């Protein structure tokens, strides 16, 4: 019995010692889109029938499955009727955490005509996976048929799914009956039809399990990991089946969310939590139905993307590939949503401070004071096959954290957070200063063998190119990162005065002025009248025309003349495609409209640029960018902005071209909606001085009315209304009034 593994009174053997019957899989004869569900640290991707086929051979659908904390706990979930795929009638994942599918039977020999049996599937996530299947005979005669539900779990790491090579994997296990221990060549699976367990032992010794409990009507028998029901239904009779899947690691629940017992309880728990959250956020609505649908979807997705880390929640970056904590993404999306829910920024600051770099570790690119890039929990991270425990290979998360720290305080006057994180802010600034000591610029150069080659927001391997399309070499100083450092120095110098550290305030002000002078000298391209993407390892400009300089427009680092030149260039046809501003000019030899960072359009990139255009007083231009992004979003499924889309020109009736594997939902794409709304009404909060400035609010032609309720500035809650007047002109003028105020905040409207 050397191959038998005993774990807390249960017995397992390697899968190759206990072959199980295979239940054939079926595939539709056409490529199907997918449905995505998300709940905290759990997400599910199925086809539009709610299935995860056992016939997955195409890499494009290899991401299907149930994932929790970077492990796939379900790689097959396939409903069949008499060994065939049902006929889809309708399906929707509108709720985000639950999906509903209506389907029917195909023709079954001469016994049952097609579309006689109504099949309704409801699937929900809440700390586990829950499904109920309702079968109804809409025929006039009694019928009998076989229904099967096939499961499997490969327990692969998410990085494995993404194509990272592994030299070795753990062992798929089969649970066996204890009374078959003495039969070395005839181990038996448990045949209890009320439950089913799939298991895996990782290279680190961890036991992973997907445990299924059947409910309502139990299967008539199990064939391997396929549950089979022999159904008999009288005319218009209904029967209900169901199960609950719980994910375990070393006998403990994997998810941070406590799983209830039933689907009804799971849906109720989700709805209660969402209602509580919605009651606390700012309510933003317009008179335009399409805009409201976009806003409501963005609100819903921000709720879905919140993920628990200890007692706090931050926004995970996006489903499927980035459903975890990312420093840069979490910070930017938290800043975008300050107008919606400042608590997201507070928790983001605290969690990232908790993991702030403490030692020098080349494998993880950790350094004292540095803010992390990415946190992972799967087997490959636990076994040190990847450095994400966490991984610190990001150049911009640290200055961005400082910017959020200052901006959050401006919105909230939260002295508790200011004081608790002051030492973290000092450590972050010291890391920046150490890095800049050699050249005067904040630069990156990969240290870890399995780290990222590029460590700005454009982090794919082919994106830092010069005007000839040639890749830049050496340590890279990105233009927008220097803008972030400048803004961080300016904003932190103001906070240093509050902390009675005038020495730091004076030093950081001087650092900022010196950086501004160097930046406008070294990054400017006189022949192009534009800003370089970066400086390479030799200090030479990387002189391609990209969207990156647009991030600097709102930060104050450019001289006014250079800022205007960048602003005008960003809207030229080679960059602005009608839907948004491309990441790279279509005149570049490296341009590819389908390239991840070399010609595609990113909503969050555009929202930062629009904010910058607005800060320069270029209101019409900022609104044009915003309206392009909103128009693109109106074409998307569920009116949900994707992570990115292709850079093809907006012409005639052509819809925006989708990027094949864009994350959706994605945090800073959803956050874009709120940043663009904020840009339109132009709020400038200063909670420490107890006032809010509203400067030249401007609604686009498609919106005549916008309201905010329960907006929080410091300790004051207020309601605002914006009304567009002179609507016969393109822009018109926008009036603002305060309709309710609970607190003593001074509101100054400057028009």
Structural class: alpha+beta
Helix content: 25-40%
Distance between the termini: 82 Å
Low-confidence regions: none
Overall geometry comes to: globular
Report the average pLDDT across residues: 94
The major beta sheet can be summarized as: 11 strands, antiparallel
In angstroms, what is the radius of gyration? 28 Å
Could you tell me the number of beta strands? Answer: 33
Q: Report the total helices.
A: 15
Percent of residues in beta strands: 25-35%
Could you name the key traits of this structure?
globular, 4-stranded antiparallel β-sheet, 751 residues, 15 helices, single chain, alpha+beta, 11-stranded antiparallel β-sheet
Summarize the structure.
InterPro entries: 6-hairpin_glycosidase_sf (IPR008928), 6hp_glycosidase-like_sf (IPR012341), GDE_N_bis (IPR032856), MGH1-like_GH (IPR054491). The protein is built from 15 helices and 33 strands. The protein is α+β, with helices and mostly antiparallel strands and 751 residues long.
Task: Describe the protein in words.
This protein is α+β, with helices and mostly antiparallel strands. Helix content is 26%, strand content 25%. The chain is built from 15 helices and 33 strands. Strands 1, 2, 8, 9, 10, 11, 13, 14, 15, 18 and 19 form an 11-stranded antiparallel sheet that branches. A hairpin with a 2-residue loop joins β3 (34-39) and β4. The relative contact order is 0.08.
């Amino acid at each position: 019995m050397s191959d038998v593994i005993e774990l807390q009174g249960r017995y397992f053997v390697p899968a190759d010692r206990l072959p199980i019957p295979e239940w054939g899989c079926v595939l539709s004869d056409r490529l199907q889109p997918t449905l995505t569900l998300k709940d905290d640290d759990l997400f599910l991707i199925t086809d539009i029938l709610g299935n995860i086929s056992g016939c997955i051979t195409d890499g494009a659908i290899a991401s299907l499955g149930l994932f929790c904390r970077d492990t796939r706990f379900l790689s097959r979930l396939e409903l069949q009727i008499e060994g065939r795929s049902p006929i889809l009638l309708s399906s929707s994942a509108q709720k985000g955490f639950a999906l509903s599918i209506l389907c029917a039977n195909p023709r079954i020999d001469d016994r049952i005509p097609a579309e006689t049996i109504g099949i309704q599937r409801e699937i929900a996530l809440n700390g586990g996976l829950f499904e109920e299947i309702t079968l109804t005979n809409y025929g006039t005669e009694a019928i009998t048929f076989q229904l099967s539900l096939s499961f499997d779990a490969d327990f692969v790491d998410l990085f494995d799914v993404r194509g990272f090579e592994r030299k070795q994997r753990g062992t798929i296990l089969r649970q066996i009956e204890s009374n078959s221990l003495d039969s070395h060549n005839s181990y038996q699976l448990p045949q209890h039809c009320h439950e089913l367990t799939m298991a895996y032992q990782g290279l680190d010794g961890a036991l992973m399990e997907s445990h299924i409990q059947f409910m309502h009507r139990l299967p008539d028998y199990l064939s391997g990991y396929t549950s089979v029901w022999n159904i008999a239904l009288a005319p218009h009779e209904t029967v209900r089946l169901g199960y609950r899947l719980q994910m375990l690691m070393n006998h403990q629940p994997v998810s941070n969310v406590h799983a209830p017992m039933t689907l009804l309880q799971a849906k109720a728990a989700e709805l209660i939590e969402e209602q509580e959250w919605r009651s606390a956020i700012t309510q933003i609505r317009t008179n335009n139905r399409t805009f409201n649908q976009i806003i409501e979807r963005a609100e819903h997705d921000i709720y879905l993307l919140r993920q628990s880390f200890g007692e706090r929640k931050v926004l995970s970056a996006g489903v499927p590939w980035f459903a975890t904590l990312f420093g840069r993404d979490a910070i930017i999306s938290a800043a975008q949503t300050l107008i919606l829910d400042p608590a997201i920024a507070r928790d983001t600051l605290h969690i990232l401070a908790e993991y702030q770099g403490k030692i020098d570790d080349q494998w993880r690119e950790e350094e004292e004071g540095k803010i992390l890039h990415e946190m992972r929990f799967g087997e490959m991270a636990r076994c040190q096959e990847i450095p994400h425990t966490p991984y610190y290979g990001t150049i911009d998360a640290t200055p961005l954290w400082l910017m959020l720290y200052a901006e959050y305080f401006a919105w909230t006057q939260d002295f508790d957070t200011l004081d608790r994180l002051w030492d973290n802010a000092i450590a972050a600034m010291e890391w920046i200063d150490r890095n800049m000591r050699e050249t005067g610029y904040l630069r990156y150069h990969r240290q870890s063998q399995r780290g990222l080659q590029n460590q700005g927001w454009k982090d794919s391997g082919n994106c830092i190119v010069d005007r000839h399309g040639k890749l830049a070499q050496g340590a890279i100083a990105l233009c927008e990162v220097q803008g972030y450092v400048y803004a961080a120095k300016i904003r932190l110098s103001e906070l240093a005065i509050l902390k009675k550290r005038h020495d730091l305030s004076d030093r950081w002000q001087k650092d900022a002025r010196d950086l501004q002078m160097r930046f406008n000298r070294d990054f400017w391209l006189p022949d192009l009248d534009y800003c370089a993407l970066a400086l390479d390892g030799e200090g030479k400009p990387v002189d391609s025309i990209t969207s990156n300089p647009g991030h600097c427009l709102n930060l104050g680092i450019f001289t006014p003349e250079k800022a205007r030149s960048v602003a005008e260039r960003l809207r030229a046809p080679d960059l602005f495609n009608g839907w948004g501003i491309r990441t790279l000019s279509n005149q570049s030899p490296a341009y590819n409209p389908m390239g991840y960072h070399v010609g595609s359009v990113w909503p969050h990139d555009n929202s930062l640029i629009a904010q910058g255009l607005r800060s320069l007083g270029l209101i019409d231009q900022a609104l044009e960018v915003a309206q392009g992004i909103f128009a693109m979003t109106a074409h998307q499924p569920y009116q949900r902005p994707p992570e990115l889309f292709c850079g093809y020109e907006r012409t005639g009736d052509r819809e925006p071209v989708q990027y094949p594997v864009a994350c959706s939902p994605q945090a800073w794409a959803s956050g874009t909606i709120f940043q663009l709304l904020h840009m339109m009404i132009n709020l400038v909060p200063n909670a420490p001085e107890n006032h809010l400035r509203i400067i030249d609010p401007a609604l686009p032609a498609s919106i005549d009315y916008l309201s905010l309720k329960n907006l929080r500035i410091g300790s004051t809650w207020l309601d605002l209304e914006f009304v567009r007047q002179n609507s016969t002109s393109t822009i018109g003028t926008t009036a603002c009034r305060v309709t309710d105020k609970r607190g003593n905040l001074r509101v100054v409207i400057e028009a």
